[in-house]
Amino acid sequence: MTTSINEQKKIRAPFRADHVGSFLRPAALKEARAKFQQGTITRDELTRLEDEEIRRLVEAQKANGILGVTDGEFRRSWWHLDFLAGLDGIEFREVENGTRKFTGVEVRPVGIKVTGKIGYSGSHPFIDHFKKLKEIAGGETTVKFTIPSPNLVFGRAALETDLYEKKEEVYRDVIPAYHALIRDLYDAGCRYLQIDDTAWTSFFTEDERDKLRKEGSDPDQLIHQFAEAINGSIADRPDDLLVTMHICRGNFRSTFFTSGSYEDAGKVIFGGLDVDGLFLEFDDERSGGFEPLRYVNRPDLTVVLGLVTSKHPELEDPEAIKARIREAAEYLPLEQLALSPQCGFASTEEGNNLTEDEQWAKIRHVVKIAEDIWGTGN
Predict the structure, then answer these.
(1) For residue range 253-306, what is the model confidence (pLDDT) as tens digits?
(2) Which of 130, 177, 279, 329 is 20 to 30 Å from the Cα of 124, by its Cα?
(3) If 0-12 CB within 10 Å is exposed, 13-18 middle and 19+ buried, where does residue 202 land?
């Protein structure tokens, strides 16, 4: 039996019930990573354990109703720094309380620095990570791969080179590096790519915009450079490579680093990005209302509403979530909406404050609500 065009569109990611990507690291994986850092096991031994745990994770995602599986970011310590430090010209550095201060918790003193010309030489560990995930998942399974945004180089890296006089100048090398790396991911079989980007929060409040001004940047110009970085990185991509972007306000051990509505950045985010979908944080009042969705100007853009929190174990009232989806549908047709947790469950290896059982209960909650709203089949 052939599949109709409408049915094909219905099952194309982002799915009606989707997720952001990271999952809580199992105790065995945490122990193995600690042993590797201590030098008591080899890289090969750690990799074998990672493979085993990712295999279990993929099966758990399928069993709990997820159609697009990830590796849970199990091979990473950080959702962003591990990838960025794999680019040419970028290295890890020590920094007080991380690159952002989170509410009420201390972040490990690790950041990144630009020490030379930024580039992609054709080799990056994340390419192999994707290949292994695709092999583990099997040919019939949709695989989603997550990488941090090129804007994180601007937003999180310290300049320790004379090659770039201003931070904005990093974009001339970051964009082609990302473009080439994404092409290699595609050639490796990637068809569902998610770009994670917390740097957009720089435009959500006047306090954040003031920080940019104090650092010598013009937020009214920089926001367009942010969009150009995304669009340039994915320019001329093949038609069958679906690209989404996730935006949130921080996710570390169930805390956050900022608040603010999408309103002041809405015209650019919703009307100026060439992505296929947007995963957006909407799980509490810190994110504002749905009014900025009015800036969506394309019928082929899917907005994935992050209405279920990954920060706490309590399950939201399903009727309240459905009511909020209907509220969002006042600004965007229901067929352009989907549902997910607002962020991953473990943006870093520490993870949020809930158990693995509670994590999967959240996933099933998303799947059930999506089935009630949009019907089965996602």
Answers:
(1) 545 556 577 888 899 999 999 999 999 998 676 667 899 999 999 999 999 999
(2) 279
(3) buried
Lookup: tokens for 220: 């009214």
- What 3-state DSSP class applies to 366? helix
Tokens of 275: 């992505």
Q: Identify the three-state secondary structure at position 369.
A: helix
The total of other beta-carbon atoms located within 10 Å of residue 65's CB is 17
Q: Which CATH number fits domain 5-374: 3.20.20.210, 3.20.20.20, 3.55.50.30, 3.30.1490.20?
A: 3.20.20.210
CB 112 within 8 A of CB 229: no
Q: Regarding beta strands 142-143 and 68-69, do their DSSP bridges make them parallel or antiparallel, or are they unpaired?
A: parallel
Q: Give the model's pLDDT for residue 100.
A: 53
CA atoms within 13 A on the CB side of 77: 16
**The token pair that represents 88 in the structure block:** 């040419």
Reported confidence tier of residue 92, pLDDT bands at 50, 70, 90: confident
Dihedral angle sign, alpha carbons of residues 21, 25, 29, 33: positive
Cα 223 to the chain's mean position, in Å? 19
Q: What is the pLDDT of residue 259?
A: 58
> Which of the four pLDDT bands, split at 50, 70 and 90, describes residue 250?
low
Q: How far is CA 63 from the centre of its chain?
A: 22
- Report pLDDT for 6: 34
Residue-wise pLDDT tens digits, 208-223: 889 889 999 999 999 9
The domain spans of the chain are 5-374
- DSSP run (H or E) holding 228: helix 219-233
CA distances from residue 20 to 87, 329, 343 in whole angstroms, order as listed? 23, 21, 5
Residue 68 neighbours by CB under 8 Å, 6+ apart: 13, 14, 15, 18, 19, 142, 143, 144, 192
Cis peptide preceding 14, ω within 30 of 0? yes
Tokens 């919703």 map to which residue? 270
Residues 14-65 pLDDT 10s: 999 999 999 999 999 999 999 999 999 999 999 999 999 999 999 999 999 9
* pTM, full prediction: 0.91
Coil, strand or helix: which one is 108? coil
